[in-house]
Amino acid sequence: MKLLAHILSSVQVLEVTLTADSHSVAAWHCTAGGEITPAPYDPASAARNLVAVTVSGHGTIFKPADSDVAARVRRDSDTFLWSEHDGDVGFVRRERLQDVLSALAAAEIHPQRIAIGLAPTTLARTLFDSLRWRDMLRPTAEGSALAQRAVRRTGLPVLGLFLCLLTANVLLAPKVGTRRQMLHARLAARERTASAAADVTARQRTLLAQFDARPEVARALLCDRIAAAVPEGVVLTQLAVEPLARRFEADKPLQRHERTAVVAGTAPIAGDVSAFVERLTAEMCCRTVRLTNVERERDAARLVFRIEIGL
Question: When you count CB atoms within 10 A of the terminal residue's CB, does the N or C end of the chain come out lower?
Answer without folding.
Answer: N
